[in-house]
Amino acid sequence: MAERLCGRDDLAPGEMKVYNFRGRDLAVARTAGDEYFAIRNLCPHQGAPLVRGFLSGTFLPSEVGEFRYGRDSEIVRCPWHRWEFDVTTGKSLHDPESCRVASYALRVDGDDVLVVTD
C-alpha cells in the first residue's frame, strides 16, 4: 500500500521541502537525477530541522591531489552543526553504522509521490 505525500512537480530537481506524514515531518528531496527520497526532518544530534539545511553532493574517493565531486543533491547538511546525511538511506556520512535518521520509501505514480506503507 501507499499514501500520497505530495505532487511530483511540487519540488524542483535539487530541492527539499518538509511534508507532514502521520504526524511526523519528513524532509523530501528531489535529486538532480529526478529521484525522490524522504527522511525524518530531525537531526539526531540536537534536533535541528534538516529541511533548513543545505542539499548538495560530496567529494568522492579519488587519487591524491584529485578532487571529484559527486552524488549531487543526495547529501543534506544540518543547518546547526553541519552534520551530513545521505538522503537515499538516512545514514550519516561520518558514522553510517551508528548515526542515522529514519528514512521512508517513496515511489512515483503518475503525478503523485507516495509513501510506501506496507
Plain-language structure description:
With 118 residues, the protein is mainly β. The chain has no helices and 10 strands. The protein has a single domain, classed as Rieske [2Fe-2S] iron-sulphur domain (Rieske Iron-sulfur Protein, 3-layer Sandwich), CATH 2.102.10. The strands form 3 sheets. A 4-stranded antiparallel β-sheet has the order 2-3-4-8, with no helix packed on it. Strands 1-10-9 form a 3-stranded antiparallel β-sheet, with no helix packed on it. A 3-stranded antiparallel β-sheet has the order 5-6-7, with no helix packed on it. Strand 5 and strand 6 form a beta hairpin. The N and C termini lie close together (5 Å).
Provide tags for this entry.
118 residues, mainly beta, three-stranded antiparallel beta sheet, four-stranded antiparallel beta sheet, 47% strand, Rieske Iron-sulfur Protein
Secondary-structure map:
Blueprint (H helix, E strand, L loop, with lengths): L1 E6 L7 E7 L2 E7 L5 E5 L13 E7 L7 E10 L6 E3 L16 E2 L1 E4 L2 E5 L2
Antiparallel strand pairs: 1-10, 2-3, 3-4, 4-8, 5-6, 6-7, 9-10
Unreliable stretches: none
Number of strands: 10
Per the principal axes of the C-alpha atoms, what is the gross shape?
globular
Query: Helix segment count?
Result: 0
Amount of beta strand: over 45%
Given the helix and strand composition, which structural class is it? mainly beta
Distance linking N and C termini? 5 Å
Domain count: the total is 1
Helix content: under 10%
Sheet having the most strands: 4 strands, antiparallel
Indicate the CATH topology. Rieske Iron-sulfur Protein
* CATH superfamily label: Rieske [2Fe-2S] iron-sulphur domain
CATH class label: Mainly Beta
Overall pLDDT: 95
